[in-house]
Amino acid sequence: MIVVASTNGSVGIQAAVAVLRDGGTAVDAVEAGIRLVEANPDDHTVGYSGYPNILGDVELDASIMNGRSLETGAVAAMKGYTHAISVARKVMEELPHVMLVADGAERFAAEMGFATEELLTAEA
Fold it and tell me: What is the rounded CA–CA span in Å between residue 90 and residue 93?
């Protein structure tokens, strides 16, 4: 088994490997690993404590794909939800659409029961 990540993704490698060792799917592993990256307050490129846009808002994007079925889901410009990867997965699994953006992504996340959170921190 090979699991690869960029430098900031390395915090999720062990979780991804553990999911695979426990019999989870590649999609399960990707989501588990990326959730740790998104929750890492020391990483300002994604998720909680991510750098804000020019208006001072943290907007998140994520996409995920099942390589076996070629199903995909994505969200973009989503505010207030730390785990964009999990919302993207729900798009893939629950909707005929491939991508939701901004208000549509946020409304869908709320309907799916995801909790909102202030993403902007003093460090970002």
Answer: 5
